[in-house]
User: What shape does this take?
Amino acid sequence: MFIKSKKTVLLIAAILIGTVGFAQQERTILISTNKGDMKVKLYNDTPRHRDYFLSLIKKGYFDGTLFGRSIQQFIIQGGSQDSRGVKPGTLVGDGDRDMEIPHEIRSNHIPKKGALACPRRDVKVNPNKDSDMSMFFIVEGRPYTQGQLDTLELVKNVPIKKRVRAELYPPLKPMLDSLKRVNPAEFNKNVRALNHRIDSITRATPGSLTFTKEERKAYTTVGGSLHLKNEYTFFGEIVEGLDVIEKISSIPTDGNDRPKEDVVMKVTILN
Assistant: This one.
């Protein structure tokens, strides 16, 4: 097919640009409760979770359900169907295996305060870390100091670094010992190169820990629950109403971590 006019070309270009812009737009939802409202943006790079969550909201799936689990400085969790209209003290949040979907864990989405995720069964029975979309949780966590983050990195990385050094250093030791005697400058250069390689391999080793600047900023300001990273799919975050998390988590709970005062929700799509 041939395009016959410049006007037609411009019109098609405008349509394409508009389509791309719409596709990249982040969806926003509102979680309304009797303790306040939380405005949440959903990430585009977790599309399975985003779209499934939106489909449930459109059906009114979460409306009238409770935040049925609350652990201060950790999480608030709700949305399960068995929490709707139940008596005080009833255990809620059994989950639904038929609503599990594959994880979309992204290293750039961290468990900072306000992060949105769905729970999952233990890795012993769910090694793929599939998400149970029948309910969701929001991270509260706590703030950390820079020193605490440094210590966490050391605890994780020092044993790994020792193992890497034990593999790389012995074959190089004769050469380094010789250089140290006859050419100290070259010795120092080689030691720096060796240490750089050890650090690089350590950071790339599964189980190591290195906080990015963005993570350090988040964890030392709003806070978070560090041990949840790479364990759950975080597919959104609160952009307005972080204080509501604290209002909910501060409610006294029973032995099942259920708030003794019901926190009922209604979830709507804003855009």
User: Anything to note?
Assistant: The first strand starts at residue 28 and ends at 33. Residues 245 and 270 are 20 Å apart (CA to CA).
